[in-house]
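Repro:
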Amino acid sequence: MTGRLVRGLRLGVIATALLALGILFLNYGVLSTPQARAYRDLDPAVPECSEGLRTGWTVLSEVGRGAPMSSMLDGDGWRDPTNDEGALRDDRRWRTRLRCALQRHVIPSARGERPLEYTLGFLEFKEDGEPYALVSRAGGSDVAIDSAMLRHAMEGEMHARGAPATGLKPVITQLDALTQHLATGRHYVIAFIHGWRHDAQVGDANVADLRFYAAHAARFLRDRCRSDPAACGMDVTAVYVGWRGARVDERGLRDRFGAALGGFFGELSAAATLFDRKPVSEAVAPAAISALRTLEAALRRPGPDGADRHNKLVVAGHSLGGNMLATGLKDDLLKAVRRHRFGEAMPPVLGDFVVLINPAAEASKWTAVQRAVWERVATPADPGATPGEVAHDSGLFPLDQRPVVMSVTAALAFPAGGLRPGDCAWIGLDVDDGFQDARARIRQRLAGTDAMFNAGVDYDWATHDLFPTFKFDFRPAAGFLERAAARIEHRPPRGMSCAVPREADLLDSVLTLPLRTLSVLAATFPFQISLPEESHTIGNLDPPRPAAGVLADARPSGAPFGTTHEMLGLAATGSERHHAYATLADADIDCPRANGWLVRARRRRVKEGGLGWDSQDLAPPQAGAEGQGSPAVRFQHGLPLTGIAPVTLANDPFWNVRAFDNALSRHDGYRLSSFICALSQLVMDDIVDAAHGNQTGMSSP
């Protein structure tokens, strides 16, 4: 009997090993994407590309136009039938054109308005960070670009535009092509680094996302042009930073085996590649940052008359693209903090603004910067710190300090860190203890959270649950399993609602027993990573709540590092109308100027040193100021009504924002017009200078 058991165990081990080897073989061989291939490396001087740059392409606004609304809705959110390169893959001409390293796209207006236009450029990198050379079409085959031929083509193009062609350098790489494009004229540039399971392949959804952002920016500038001549002459350029974030060919699987079966196996195979791709994102980081700094330098060059061209550059990174930015900029940020002069505004570290969207990066890459600031200032929690020292050090950054880097993540619940057993009893009190208004606001916020959980809260599970699991911290996954069991049992999750749970049905209890058992095992599994800063991501590390106090208090945290702000949409969850790419030229969207709002929010809380400011609670505008307003979403400093005092200074330039799902949802739900507008306002508008509200941020240096 013992011998049979041993043989059975051996067979089981062998079978498991063979299965693991089979999966690895499939992932690294059969299903793998090409290891060193650029998808958008066709030289702009090639006729197919140069013609497109002159005339612009409207084809992507025509794809899927007229599709019934029912086809635009899917079970996971919103799917845009327009803006789909995949629909053109069978057209040989468009397969070639979409390989162009520089492209010009146009969205016509059905109402006779000026069409939306923008340039789309690509920067692709190999896994070691090496950039790709451009290629040209010669005899039907791809050949390396000849610099003499390129110089001749460039000079001809510049002559046709009436621009001086002297001093032009040969265009060898995608970076060269973009640098030449940005060397003249006035530009609003959006650089986007994609994340896990994506690349620059024709048809990739993240390329479509960037076009969506670029079209919004073109729309915002067109609308502002009516009242601000400075906005009329700006061209929008979108830069897609591509790398091999997708190691499994998921689209190939769907094409071969159908959306259901191919999609299932694609998801299964790709799930194992998260931390195979993460080191690659970090290896590419230095090259990507240096390339972006090259573009920044090109934008900073003065115009022909020696004047500032007032160009704008916003750099965004999503998922592992956010990790790439956090990795590549960490040392620069630490150095900027250490060299910062007291009371002066800290300048941007890259472009005009950096935003990390649902970054899949260890929180330690952010808390290192927070600690560098924390070490320079006295706080109320510091032993021996006097009120005078605290008040003085609050001026480390001035009132007109703009945000330099913002991380924004779709958060799970209110309040940050969850509810304690005694919180619900306190919330339900009806006594005159000075907290009545606060309790009413908390009840209102919890009611919204309950509705979110009933419908299924759209938080970023990939960075909240999956990332820690790969880092050998199973506690967030345990919470995921417990929440899944709660939904089946029709009860609120523990620690996240004050709703009275109903008694679970016997059948539901039996069905959820495996989930609850796995949850307990995951939460208590031995030798897990114990330091949340190393296993949690930047936007999923909330400061721990102090032991004393109630939710209406604002007491210092024992570890004042982690998330610093909250962001809420101004519309109810699910009520904001989505707009297809093809309709953006005429869609009912608005992104008005919001000058001076950040200074006004800080001034409203002057008695508290600006702490706890709220973009929906602004001081009155100064007399004669124009273009003043509030952002398209609600920003709040600190984590209000959580029992935690703000962990950063009111004027701190580093914002780590936890967002509700009516502002930013899921891992990839960053396409709401209000969210895009809010990011644009942080760059376009003079949000910190109320005294110059009659000037638009577009024309300010």
